[in-house]
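Methods — Computational structure assignment.
A single polypeptide chain was analysed. Its primary sequence is given first, followed by the predicted tertiary structure written as structure tokens.
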Amino acid sequence: MFKALLLEKGDGATRCTLSELDESRLPEVDDGAVLVRPACSTINYKDALAITGKGPVVRQWPMVPGVDGAGEVLESHHAYWSPGDRFVLNGWGVGETHWGCLAQRARLKGDWLVRLPAAFTPRQAMAIGTAGYTAMLCVLALEAHGLRPGDGEVLVTGATGGVGSVAIALLARLGHRVTASSGKAQEADYLKSLGAAAVIDRAELAAAGKPLQKERWAGVVDALGSHTLANAMAQTRYGGVVAACGLAQGMDLPASVAPLILRGVTVAGIDSVMAPRARREQAWTRLARDLDPALLERMTTEIALADAPDAAAKLMAGQARGRFVVRID
């Protein structure tokens, strides 16, 4: 038997309960199954949507949420994994179509897992989570385009969120001058403690704007989409690059091609869910090298598994800062 958050659908509403389940209920895996014991998980934005029922994230019912997990392998039918190995999991539809890691047990496909770098504990890995791993993918995309420290300011939107917080910390440590965009003026000191050189009000970017605006940013990490992404593109300098990884403001993109064809701006789409293992390993290797573990503590709140529903509600209400780490044990 093991404890898990269980999501069930009834009368059009989502019910979330902390339940005790038999291991036999864990879904089967077609090839290369690995039974794991998550030590920690986190509340990803998708998890918050699923737990609160505010988004059509869950595709199969009942469901155990938990997009992210880190812990220990218990049993393995995969050549790459052995009992006792430490793992980290991000994405792959876990918590959407396959039971996830907000539980004391999970049966996963071995191909989905990445070895947890020795530099991180499971708690630290979940302080990073999909949000921080996505932030690293954004930084890699900016670098692949040729962005270097000294090229100009880099804008990070949704700055107090998980992606934004880690992106600021990474970019600042790599030597970039970072401007954070946030609607929480009271969090300016927090953002500057992560490395932001300046903080602007998200209202400057949130409404409809001109197709081309004053050139400001050499690079952008955007987690919001919609008008914010459109304005960020319109303000990006000639030859600059925008890494688009989220849709917290909206899935629409009311933009013009003008920045693309008149300023040579590149928009790099960032997918963290289905990224191949090689790219994931590259991201986690760089996180181990470039992310200051001390900054993780500033952006992390640790909670128990039973507290996860309340944390999800706070995240959806815009009352969260940084990352929630869920202690499974």
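Note: Residues 2-116+299-327 form a domain with the Quinone Oxidoreductase; Chain A, domain 1 fold (CATH 3.90.180.10).
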